[in-house]
Amino acid sequence: MTVDVHAHVVLPELEEAVAGWPERAAARALEARRTGPKAQAVSGPMIRERIPMLTDATARLAAMDACGVDIQLVSPVPDYHYWADEELARTVWELANTGVAAHCAQAPERLRGLGLVPLQHPHLAVEALEHALEQGLSGVEISSHAPGRELSDPAYEPFWSRAEETGAVLFLHPYGCTLDERLDQWYLSNTVGQPTENAVALSHLIFSGVLDRHPELKLIAAHGGGYLPTHIGRSDHAWRVRPDARGCARPPSSYLKRLYFDSLVHDPSVLRELIRIAGADRVLLGSDFPFDMGADDPLAALRAAHLPDPDFHAIRGANAASLLRLT
């Protein structure tokens, strides 16, 4: 089977719940400043024309059929509302988890789902994860950081522990970039910002020892893990020569074989390098469905790497089938 682990859904009930909050307006204004007016002018119409595929399961399935995808792992469009207070955060994760579950229930043999947790309130993350799993979801989607907290923050230890115990899948997908207005032209907020955020978040998990303490954590990094896998040699060098970079037990590159990465890197040679570094068993097909920065034909993008047949079929779906316990 062909399994796409990077696909999104828009949940109108959730959008209605956060609309009208001043903090929501402030978050949108910040995002507009970070991306710039030209990007905003392009993104708005692009998203609107894709709303049917983001909300209607029938339209989604037709698009999947057109590109030969059998199963999608569906996650909310990454706007995490980490500005929300505890009461609203509960509403956000409950609507996200039940909304994704309802969407996937329209085609349970073809759709699997991920929910949300409030990283801005670490003491609630385990409860939100449990709620997602109770809805029948495979795990949750998280961003690269929350306001004032990196993923290396000790406050997240109970969350990592419970995710490891339950076998929940964690999908690391950044939202925005903290380089702010430096990236507000030429869509740099996405083309440079997203790979940067992935690299920073994964480095926090590696160097802080999170992956030493939780070796069975099932974490998928979107966008091929950003810049980190192809530049991991610099991290290894720092680990060898600098005592302040010795937060992890082994060279950083060794931890890439414990993580999972989607295949969405937009370059066959980069994909081959990711496979060399992480292993063919750690790369999963990903399309970022249905956005313009994704792959309209993810299988064609995978074929362009000219991989050996066992690697091709592992990435096409066998790895994800094992990870998601598909039959």
UniProtKB/TrEMBL annotation:
Residues 3-326 form the Amidohydrolase-related domain. Gene3D superfamilies: Metal-dependent hydrolases. GO terms for biological process: secondary metabolic process. This is Amidohydrolase. Keywords: Lyase. Signal peptide: none annotated. It comes from the Bacteria. PANTHER family: 2-AMINO-3-CARBOXYLMUCONATE-6-SEMIALDEHYDE DECARBOXYLASE, ISO-OROTATE DECARBOXYLASE (EUROFUNG). The keyword Lyase applies. It comes from Streptomyces capitiformicae. Pfam families: Amidohydro_2 (PF04909). The keyword Iron does not apply. InterPro entries: ACMSD (IPR032465), Amidohydro-rel (IPR006680), Metal_Hydrolase (IPR032466).
